[in-house]
Amino acid sequence: MNTCSIAIHGGAGTILRSTMTAELQQQYEQALLEALNAGHSILAAGGRSLDAVAAAVVSLEDFPLFNAGKGSVFNNTGKHEMDAAIMYGDGLQAGAVCGVSNIKNPVLLAKAVMEHSGHVLLSGKGAEDFGRAQQLPFEDDSYFYSEQRYAQWQQALKEDVVQLDHTVKKFGTVGAVALDKQGNLSAATSTGGLTNKKFGRVGDSPIPGAGTYANNDTCAISCTGVGELFIRSVVAYDISCLMEYRGLSLKEACDIVVQHKLVKIGGEGGLVAVDKDGNIAMPFNSEGMYRACRNTAGSTEISIYR
Ligand code: ASP
Fold this sequence. Notes:
This protein has 10 helices and 12 strands. It has one domain (5-305): (Glycosyl)asparaginase (Glutamine Phosphoribosylpyrophosphate, subunit 1, domain 1, 4-Layer Sandwich), CATH 3.60.20.30. It starts with a strand and ends with a strand. The longest helix is centred in the first third of the chain and has 23 residues, at 22-44. It is an alpha+beta fold. The strands form 2 sheets. It has an 8-stranded mixed β-sheet with strand order 4-3-2-6-5-1-11-12. The chain has a 4-stranded antiparallel β-sheet with strand order 7-8-9-10. The protein is globular and about 50 Å long.
């Protein structure tokens, strides 16, 4: 195997041409291209898919318009509580964090959990303490503040809705999947979760098998959508199982899960996926999904709408 491929997303939802300005669209497309290049340059140089997905997600976390890292939404108490996971298909290695604040790049904390903690999922203050011990960068609350996110939170507070209702319309989680030249698959996902979320709510993103999954025998997947429904559907693992046990192609497995099983229970969203041969799928059942990929032939796609 001497090929590589990568796909990334910046969230799914009701993303309509009619509500987008040309300037904003250009900003999103540029951010997607930069993240894609950050990941692909590692793969092209023979690097690990694990490092490629981490680099792509760091780039997306640093872009303020996506709901991850810097652009994370406000929770009910006016804080930013982030979730992230990374998984390496070689030996099913995984690391994840949930409910963490002030860490600049949650995906790097998830990667450190995988590589250095001996555990899979760390939460809240304990995860932050581990990040400090690993000397990862932290930022003040002001780094995560944006007027747009604050206004969204105030609106959600006023209407007393958890963003699950309010933002059934838009999920800005970010993620990446990749196959490297050694045949190893990786997936990473990072999110601020839902605006106005309460009581330590955790979504699908940091849960291996739900929002993030990688298995060298099948595929790597990163999801975005209503986390509760993605957890209940065990979306990422289900796609892997359909491939492993029923011999379906990546596309067939994705179609069944995203366009049928999820739709049946009202699970809006989508995902990016790559299989062990480098085939890419980017299915979604919402109006749009910020997405980009570069396949084994080196051709690039950047898309937003259906
Ligand atoms: N899946 C994420 C969550 O439920 C939300 C998103 O995709 O934006 O936390």
